[in-house]
Structures are given as structure tokens and as C-alpha cells.
Design a protein that fits this description.
This protein is of the alpha/beta class and about 425 residues long. The chain folds into three domains: about 140 residues, 3-Layer(aba) Sandwich (Rossmann fold); about 180 residues, Rossmann fold, CATH 3.40.50; about 90 residues, ACT domain (Alpha-Beta Plaits, 2-Layer Sandwich). About 30% of the residues lie in helices and about 20% in strands. The protein is built from 13 helices and 16 strands. The strands form three sheets. It has a seven-stranded parallel beta sheet with strand order 8-7-6-9-10-11-12, with helices on both faces. β1, α1 and β2 form a beta-alpha-beta unit. It is elongated, with a radius of gyration of 25 Å. Its EC number is 1.1.1.399, 1.1.1.95. GO terms for molecular function: (S)-2-hydroxyglutarate dehydrogenase activity; NAD binding; phosphoglycerate dehydrogenase activity. Pfam families: 2-Hacid_dh, 2-Hacid_dh_C, ACT_AHAS_ss. One of its GO terms (biological process) is L-serine biosynthetic process.
């Protein structure tokens, strides 16, 4: 984000926000001095997206826009991507990393919203509320206690004890439920929640199973026919995580033949691209299933927090070079600095790259007052501060960009 002289002025940094991102994002950017903000309400297909991002420096999306290798490689101006959501599976993270583009998200902002929806679904499933509500709307007065149970004393099994899973556990325990969980990593139990060694142990004991896992190759189709059939007969399944986790046909069969008493599903393997498209699924019409249109994190409070969180990460990356919160980049927290010329390089993580960069500064007789350097498997992220003004800073930047290992470089001149 540099011009021929110094750092690119904030009003020249073009930011594009897609998919009706909450106004809090725009407000946060404007208050930080980033006035060149453009918004598009919906998601864009590949061709339209490639056209829209030409000349864009920072791009904000939610869950529908797909940033593939082809899309990311179609412009040389993009320096940062913000996923205004928890997940980042809509972005080819490896491709973004190879291009020196950090990808930020909001892993905590909507956790409460998802946990609250899950609690509400647990109560509605146990009370068979959804079916009774539909019947009353149709004029049928089906007042009976048969099949309607309290959640107190029941066992909730949580698969994935992360940010959402832990909040859900706390809420469930406050309602008198017993909580057991499985996570691939060792996690400290909160409250009275009990860890299990396997998923199968959870399925054998839980009256309700709630999924809170990311979308990864090893979680794709995790709840298949065998796993669903290993759940307790009469149990309930809730998926408010990722649509790829559950085999929908297997779930539909288990519901129709009575192996499961009900389910609540908010995410699906194939979802409509817009609100105008028809949703198709074998789960439609099964009266013991609560279907919602991917609204787990769609509360006003959550969207406001997400907008503020990701916009703040944009500002910190652009203003000072901080990469904290980037899911595909080395994590570097940086001070704002005073009266410094800051050089930032994204380099290939190969032997000798940092030495070559330092040699370049030594040849120019520049004294480095601070250096921040972090790597991951593929890239290194280097921030070098030189005290005071550097008259030939643009020439030095050009030399950094010409180094064989440089992926991307930029200049922040605060003098």
C-alpha cells in the first residue's frame, strides 16, 4: 500500500465490503480515516467477483463469496481479506498465504448467539414444540404431555469443545443438564463438564448431541450412517456448525424410521446462493426436524461485534502491520511506533532470506532500531523499523521487492 513517495494515504486505500456486512464495519473504518469504502449487498459469482476486486486493497466477505486461487490471483492490488464470520473455508487460505495476503476472521464474536440458538433448539426438541406450533397454526389443538420432556437431568453431548462448545456447556449446566464432550485436543473442563476419550462414548451416553466442529478434510461426513446409528435410540442431533459434517440422507433415514427422535439443522452441504433461491433437502417435511437458514450467528449483536472486530484487524494491519488474528499468517503484534520508517516484507520461508534482507539494510548504512520476525511452514513475516526519515526509502523498497524470496513488501512512513 505504497505510492511513489510514502505510505499510500488512507483515503486512497480502496476497501470493498460484500454480502451486507454490518454497518459497524464501515463505521469503524471511517472513524480510523479509511473513507474509500464501497459496499455491495449480495455475494458475487466468480466472474463478477474478479471484476469487482480490481483495484481493491482490502476485501470483506461473509460466507457465500468464494475466494478461490483463480479469484485471488486475478488482481495484484489485494493486500488483506476479512471474513466477517467465524469460518474461513470460503477462502483458499494456502493460495492467499502464497500471495502474501493475510486472512482475518472473527472467531469469538458470534459464539454466544450460536450457543443460545442451540439451547433454544434443545428445549424445543425435547418439548416437541415445533410440531405443536405448526399444528396450532393449522387449527389443530393437540394438547398432550406424551413425548414432552424437561431438559433438566438429561445428558448433552458436545462434539467440539471450543469457543461455542464451552459457552453451550455453561448454559446447559445452568439448566440442570449433565454435559459430556469430546475434543481432539486436551481441553480444560469448565464447570462440571466431563471429557470423554472418543466420540463413540459421547454418542452412547448423550440424549442430545450437538456438533461444533470446523470444516476440515477429516470432519467431512463425520456423522455418516454408522455414526448416526451408534447414537442412543430416541436421541436428538443438532448441527449448527458446518453443513459438511452430516450425511443428510443418513440423518433423514434415521429420523423417518424412528432411530432418532428429532434434529435441528442450521447448516447444509448445499445452501441457496440468495434468499430468492429454493432450498432443497430430504429433511424438508419431516415434522420432527427444526430447519433454519444458517442463522446461528445472525443476531444483531453478533453481526455488530463481527463488523467491529474484523474492521479493527484491517486497520491494525494497514496502520502498523499487525497480523494478530490472521488465520494463514505468522502472528505479529506491533506497536504503532513514533518517528520511524517501517519496512514490511512477506518472504518465502527459506534458508538465508532474513540474512539477505538485513544485508540490504547494512549496505545502505541504515541502523535497524527494532525488528519483528515470525514464520510458519511456508512464509516469513518481517517488520523492520529504521529511526527517523529515510530519504531513499522508496528505492530501498524497490530493492526489497527485487529480492528472490520476496512475496510482497510495503512501506509505512510515520515521520
Amino acid at each position: 500500500m505504497t505510492s511513489n513517495k510514502l505510505s499510500r494515504p488512507k483515503n486512497q486505500i480502496r476497501i470493498l465490503l460484500l454480502e451486507s456486512i454490518a454497518p459497524s464495519a464501515r463505521d469503524a473504518l471511517l472513524s480510523a480515516g479509511y473513507t474509500n469504502v464501497h459496499e455491495i449487498c449480495g455475494a458475487l459469482d466468480k466472474a463478477a467477483l474478479i471484476k469487482a476486486i480490481q483495484g481493491v486493497h482490502m476485501l470483506g466477505i461473509r460466507s457465500r463469496s468464494q475466494l478461490t486461487t483463480q479469484v485471488l490471483g486475478a488482481t495484484n492490488t489485494l493486500v488483506a481479506v476479512g471474513c466477517f464470520s467465524v469460518g474461513t473455508n470460503q477462502v483458499d487460505l494456502a493460495a492467499a498465504s502464497a500471495l502474501g495476503i493475510p486472512v482475518f476472521n472473527a472467531p469469538f464474536s458470534n459464539t454466544r448467539s450460536v450457543a443460545e440458538l442451540t439451547i433454544a433448539e434443545i428445549v424445543m426438541l425435547m418439548r416437541n414444540t415445533f410440531k405443536k406450533s405448526v399444528n396450532v397454526h393449522k387449527g389443530r389443538w393437540d394438547k398432550t404431555a406424551a413425548g414432552s420432556r424437561e431438559v433438566r437431568g438429561k445428558t448433552l453431548g458436545i462434539i467440539g469443545y471450543g469457543n461455542i462448545g464451552t459457552q453451550l456447556a455453561a448454559l446447559a449446566e445452568s439448566m440442570g443438564m449433565r454435559v459430556i464432550y469430546f475434543d481432539r485436543l486436551d481441553k480444560l473442563s469448565h464447570g462440571n463438564a466431563e471429557s470423554t476419550k472418543t466420540i463413540d462414548e459421547v454418542l452412547a451416553k448423550a440424549d442430545i448431541v450437538s456438533l461444533h466442529l470446523p470444516e476440515q478434510p477429516d470432519t467431512n461426513g463425520l456423522f455418516n450412517e454408522v455414526r448416526i446409528r451408534s447414537m442412543k435410540k430416541g436421541a436428538f442431533l443438532i448441527n449448527n456448525a458446518r453443513g459438511s459434517l452430516v450425511d443428510i440422507d443418513a440423518l433423514a433415514n434415521a429420523l423417518k424410521d424412528g432411530h432418532l427422535s428429532g434434529a435441528a439443522v442450521d447448516v447444509f452441504p448445499n445452501e441457496p446462493k440468495s434468499n430468492k433461491d429454493i432450498f432443497e433437502s430430504r429433511l424438508r417435511g419431516i415434522e420432527t426436524v427444526i430447519l433454519t437458514p444458517h442463522i446461528g450467528g445472525s443476531t444483531e449483536e453478533a453481526q455488530e461485534c463481527i463488523g467491529e472486530e474484523v474492521a479493527r484487524k484491517f486497520v491494525e494491519y494497514s496502520d502498523v502491520g499487525s497480523t494478530m488474528g490472521a488465520v494463514n499468517f505468522p502472528q505479529v503484534q506491533l506497536p504503532k511506533g513514533t518517528l520511524v520508517t517501517r519496512f514490511i516484507q512477506v518472504q518465502r520461508n527459506e534458508p538465508g532470506e532474513l540474512g539477505r534482507l538485513n544485508d540490504l539494510f547494512a549496505r545502505h548504512g541504515l541502523n535497524i532500531v527494532s525488528q519483528h520476525y515470525q514464520t510458519n511452514e511456508h512464509i516469513g513475516y518481517v517488520v523492520l523499523d529504521v529511526c527517523g526519515a529515510v530519504p531513499n526509502c522508496v528505492d530501498i523498497l524497490k530493492e526489497i521487492r527485487q529480492l528472490a524470496g520476496t512475496i510482497r513488501a510495503r512501506l509505512l512512513n510515520r515521520v
